[in-house]
Design brief:
transferase, TIM Barrel, binds the ligand Cc1nc(C(=O)O)sc1CCOP(=O)(O)O, alpha/beta, HK-domain-containing protein, UDP-N-acetylmuramoyl-L-alanine:D-glutamate ligase, binds the ligand Cc1ncc(COP(=O)(O)OP(=O)(O)O)c(N)n1, TMP_synthase, magnesium ion binding, eight-stranded parallel β-barrel
Length: 520
């Protein structure tokens, strides 16, 4: 290390206790193998139970390895060991030796990292001018029994957004529950060119220390961390919406591609969901089997996760689906049906939203308000998330839809008398449809499939949602004209016919009557 500022946090290994290995030799060999990957950029020696003498003796051996690999060594908590061994850095938490004491006692060139679990702590670290912040836990972890509650990727993103407003804020490394399955998602959520948010690296214990091949594990983490294109991330914004051309483009692509949509949906709406997808010129697969998820993620273009008839196993099943469809780079539409009604629904909704990238969240006003309210348990609470009721004005609802889209870096489709679509940058209101849709069981749930097919074919996520939803609602209006206002039974059949025609004609003239407005 030439200067205290010359450190790279991108793949930061924190050690597990030497005592968790069969021998000290096995432990040192493990570290040496990990360091031989050339992927590790910082190594923190963390021993909670050793005496100062034993810690120092171990630190001297580890320092030889880190020096050989030209990787800075950071000592966890112990100022004495840090000084004695001449480590390049010290990491301390809020219960440890104070930052100012450590700063006075250590050479200027020694960098000092501070832990933060909340926005207030992160701001305090910045005020103290810590050299870096260890922000965590990001995800649940079993490596630190006294860890604070996780902030998840969206919470980390909010904290980083606040830090980015300060001049000279310290770099930040995320820690806690980070592994190969979530690194890419965390990196995408927390490195957003649009808002200036940056996370500087990932710190891990088990992802490398518990791996039988620590060098390979470190290399894979580095490769995931350095990605600039993401498997799951939406394609760039290309569509001009609203316009008849966009309408024809998306529906034409649906007709050509015939997207295959995996419906993990509730038992009440299976038939209408499958029929609407077929009418939309897409193909449905209906399956709730856990053992099929990975295979289906490889052949399907997208999945609909609908918690309408959930049980205690739904969150495990659906988070598995999020992981599989993210890894396959396919569309995930999440419908948190009745999200606020029970504890099970609230918890399941929260776990799914925390688990990975959701391409589209679709729900009615109270479901979206519940999704927004769930955030109030974390960072958002400190900054005051307003609970928006379904009887609030369209503008107020649109503001919340935009906030939820921004927070999860996703597209939100809120259905109601006025539908609202937002991707956190652009927000539209859509005013088509008929009251007969509300008298049709599964009309909202079947829309999940229409959105998945539209996005899978279209490219621009939010734009494709606007087109798919408008086509669906215009078809409903045409069907209502045919059957009259008091025939909900006959309405469904004619609606399916009209959806079919809309895609068959690829929207030729079908956009007439669309009442779509892009809000400023
Ligand atoms: C990089 C990094 N970030 C955070 C921590 C946690 O430190 P602390 O709060 O002091 O908790 P313990 O590690 O001492 O249990 C860390 N060690 N490293
Ligand atoms: C050491 C540590 N500090 C944390 C914090 O939140 O400050 S979480 C954590 C444990 C990280 O281990 P793993 O990568 O195995 O989850």
């Amino acid at each position: 290390m030439e200067s205290k500022h010359n450190f790279d946090l991108s793949v930061y290994l924190v050690t597990s206790p030497v005592a968790s290995f069969p021998s000290e030799d096995a432990y040192l060999k493990h570290l040496e193998t990990a360091l031989s990957s050339d992927a590790i950029t910082v190594l923190q020696l963390r021993e909670k139970k050793l005496s100062d003498d034993a810690f120092l003796a171990l630190a001297r051996k580890v320092k030889k390895l880190t020096d050989k690999a030209k990787v800075p060594l950071v000592i966890n908590d112990n100022l004495f060991v840090c000084k004695e061994v001449g480590a390049e850095g010290l990491h301390i938490g809020w219960d440890d030796v104070g930052y100012e004491t450590a700063r006075k006692e250590l050479p200027e060139s020694t960098f000092i990292g501070l832990s933060a679990s909340t926005l207030d702590q992160a701001l305090a670290c910045a005020r103290l001018k810590a050299d870096y912040i260890g922000l965590g836990p990001i995800f649940p972890t079993s490596s630190k029994p006294d860890a604070n509650p996780p902030c998840f990727a969206y919470g980390a993103r909010e904290i980083l957004e606040e830090l980015s407003k300060l001049e000279g804020a310290p770099p930040v490394v995320g820690i806690g529950g980070i592994d190969e399955g979530n690194t890419e998602y965390l990196q995408w959520m927390c490195n957003d060119g649009r808002s200036g948010v940056t996370l500087d690296g990932v710190a891990v214990i088990s992802a490398i220390m518990a791996s039988p091949q620590p060098d390979e594990a470190a290399k894979r983490l580095k490769e995931l961390w350095e990605r600039t294109t993401y498997t799951f991330a939406p394609k760039p914004v290309t569509l001009e919406v609203p316009s008849g051309t966009a309408f024809r483009t998306v529906l034409g692509k649906v007709r050509e591609k015939k997207p295959l949509v995996h419906n993990m949906t509730n038992t009440v709406v299976q038939t209408i969901s499958a029929n609407m997808l077929l009418a939309f010129h897409a193909s449905p697969i209906m399956s709730l089997a856990s053992s099929e998820v990975e295979d289906l993620s490889k052949i399907c273009d997208g999945v609909v996760l609908n918690i309408g008839t959930l049980d205690e196993s739904t969150s495990t099943l659906f988070t598995k689906a999020v992981a599989a469809y993210n890894a396959a780079g396919k569309v995930v539409v999440f419908d948190p049906v009745g999200a606020g009604a029970t504890k099970l629904r609230r918890e399941t909704t929260k776990r799914i939203l925390e688990s990975g990238y959701i391409t589209v969240i679709k729900g009615n006003a109270s479901e979206i308000a519940t999704v927004a309210g769930d955030l109030a348990g974390s960072v958002a609470e400190q900054r005051g998330v307003d609970a928006v009721k379904s009887d609030s004005s369209v503008d107020v609802q649109a503001e919340l839809v935009l906030k939820v889209a921004k927070r999860y870096r996703t597209t939100v489709v809120q259905t109601g008398e006025v539908d609202i679509v937002s991707d956190g940058t652009r927000t539209w209101t859509l005013r088509n449809g008929t009251p007969l849709q509300e008298l049709t069981t599964g009309a909202g749930c079947a829309l999940g499939g229409i959105l998945a097919a539209s996005v899978a074919a279209g490219g621009d996520v939010a734009g494709s949602c606007v087109v798919g939803l408008t086509a669906y609602n215009l078809a409903a209006e045409r069907a209502a004209k045919v059957v009259g206002d008091s025939s909900p039974g006959s309405f469904v059949g004619v609606w399916v016919d009209e959806v079919h025609k809309a895609v068959k004609d690829a929207g030729a003239g079908g956009y007439d009557g669309a009442r779509v407005e892009l809000l400023k």
